[in-house]
Amino acid sequence: MRIRQIGFSIPELLIVIVAIGIIASIVLVTYNGIQGRAQDAAVQSDLGNISGVLEAYRNRDDGSNPTHEYPRTKTVLETLGIKASKNSYNTTVSYNMIYCIANSGANAYKQYKLIALSKSGNIFMMTQDGFTTHSLTAANLTSTVCSTTLGMGLVSNGLYAPNTWQDWVGSS
Predict the structure, then answer these.
(1) Of 125, 150, 139, the residue nearest 94 (C-alpha)
(2) Most buried by CB count within 10 Å: which residue of 69, 101, 127, 171?
(3) What's the predicted TM-score (pTM) here?
(4) Distance (Å, rounded) from C-alpha 111 to C-alpha 102?
């Protein structure tokens, strides 16, 4: 009479281990995609909220902005109570949120561009007319992007550089 051993053979165990590895890699890729989309959504939400605050400042009727212009300085931005989800921005670069304003011509101080680099690597641009398409890359996001690429003046930029948006944006 032959005694049968209870347990799994080596090939059966290897198949199970490979299957678990494949499932784990699928879950990891899916998680990273979901996390990236969440960071993008947070950055887009921040830009929408900041745009609303900038519009409210421009349209003030209390006499504090009689020319109905967008904020020109970091000092004014600090007074507006702007909030952002700072953990959603790419912190491996120096310039991850940039606020530019038209500073000459017929539209001086009546147009702005707000550019943000999400932790996922996507770049979003908001203007007074809403989100807009662009061809910017992370390499374009320097202290001169407003003047050289967009033809505007720089008000505030960067994360760690002097005069950064960290100074005028609170955490949310």
Answers:
(1) 139
(2) 101
(3) 0.78
(4) 5
Q: Dihedral (C-alpha) 118, 123, 125, 126: value to the nearest 10 degrees?
A: -20
CA dihedral 151, 100, 93, 48 (to 10 degrees): -130
Mean pLDDT (the chain) is 84
Q: Residue 9: CB partners within 8 Å, gap ≥ 6?
A: none
Q: Tell me the one-letter amino acid at 61.
A: D
Q: Give tens-digit pLDDT for 38-77.
A: 999 999 999 999 999 999 999 988 888 888 899 888 888 8
CB atoms inside a 10 Å sphere around CB 163: 15
Q: How many CB atoms lie within 10 A of CB 41?
A: 13
**Ramachandran angles phi, psi of 97, nearest 5°:** -145, 130
> Which candidate, 91, 92, 140, places its Cα nearest to that of 115?
140
Residue with tokens 């904020």: 71
Give the H/E segment covering residue 154.
Answer: strand 153-156
